[in-house]
Write a structure and sequence with these properties.
The protein is built from 20 helices and 9 strands. Bound molecules: S-adenosylmethionine and iron/sulfur cluster (SF4). The site of iron/sulfur cluster (SF4) has 9 residues, from loops.
Amino acid sequence: MEIDKKYLDPNFKDFIDDDKIWEQLNAAKNPEKSEIRAIFDKARSKVRLEPEETAKLLQIEDEDLLQEMFALARQIKEEVYGERIVFFAPLYVGNKCRNNCLYCGFRHDNKSIDRKTLTMDELGEEVEVLEKSGHKRLILVYGEDDNYDADFIAKTIKKVYATKVGRGEIRRVNINAAPLDVPGYKKLHEAGIGTFQIFQETYHHDTYRKLHPAGDRKGNYAWRLYGLDRAMEAGIDDLGIGALFGLYDWKFEVMGLLYHTIHFEKTFDGVGPHTISFPRIESALDVPFTLNPKYKVSDDDFKKLVAILRLSVPYTGMILTARESTKVREEVLPLGVSQVDAGSRIGIGGYAEYDRGLIPEKEQFQLGDMRSLDEAIRDVCKQGCIPSFCTADYRCGRTGSHFMSIAKKSLIHNFCIPNAIFTFKEYLLDYASPETKTAGEEVINKTIKKFDAAKQKIIKDKLQLISDGKRDIYI
Ligand code: SAM
Ligand code: SF4
């Protein structure tokens, strides 16, 4: 795969203007309360904010305004997505890597980790363990290596869909891998990929250059920045963006994510990213950069950035990963998060090993939340949310522009909540511990009561079908 020549041109100008972002952030300092409240009013109507407005939110220091912002983030999340939280698991397929990203445990020169790529049989074993715990949605993760080309990734997607144990099956496979070219993405589209996810890591050009050696393929900022444009061109219209927080100033990165969103909307007829991820850097074995990064984001700032993203891009799914501790996850969840991973293991072959009682030491980074899926589900129920394993949007064609038109009109919960109830009921019947079953049934009953009588009847009829043994019911 060759990098497109235009991205090799030193004069190529992309849509991230570092100076302009800093000008906007500086101009937004010490905002008036009235200005901020006007922006809150706009956000309340669930319109995507402009960079100047987001910059002002990023500069809020006043405690009352911060509390108002957190409350508004909660409200927007509930109005757009309802109180449902989608669960998924990451599955690391291979950790060979040609690149030397300074912050990553998989970096090529890191001799302290064992390099491994799952065979198709081993991949099947991992998927079986995940299915037996109740997962229905996976994100497959790969280093960047010639062995992990589009044909290989497509083969792994097909293998995952084909692996079924008992009542288990994986119904949506998302991918986090190095950017591909258009023919490569087409192969993944044909294999039935859900979302393709690429994190820009940092939107700040100079920092990007410092952290990604020039000779590496990942050293080309623009090839990565436009990586999801190529996916769209190939027909993959659910795109996941993200920044690795802790590489550069967090306020700048939020602005970068917003500009990326605006770029998609302008280029693809209003279709923004399907999801935004905001991982924070974690320490990794023999990766000195991760020990005390200069731009490390505090828990307080982390909360702010999640709420500001929720207000700025109200219709986009937001993913909070198990990199974060259980405590942080509980605090941040209500501020706008719509998807979390749980029961995650990020060693290559980590699920099967863990199932056999082994805990791998040499991973890409350290996870903060090691709860099982069952525990995480129970805790989410206690927070008043309804866990979901729904994959209906993608399978009903509610992706890309169709998804956006629904999400932007806040109608997504008309589909999402009933589908959350159905898929959660399956989980409770097939996989949950007795304790989780009790907590879960309570949440289902409470959630059903929020619908009118006609809808309640439809939902209850379908729940009866599930209790009678039918599976994979959605609307
Ligand atoms: N190799 C592909 C790439 O770089 O795009 C995809 C897989 S990479 C393993 C997935 C993501 O892990 C990266 O995009 C990066 O944001 C994240 N990551 C790398 N090092 C990390 C660390 N020390 N802590 C937290 N996340 C990290
Ligand atoms: Fe390789 Fe991705 Fe890690 Fe960079 S972030 S070293 S490309 S696995």
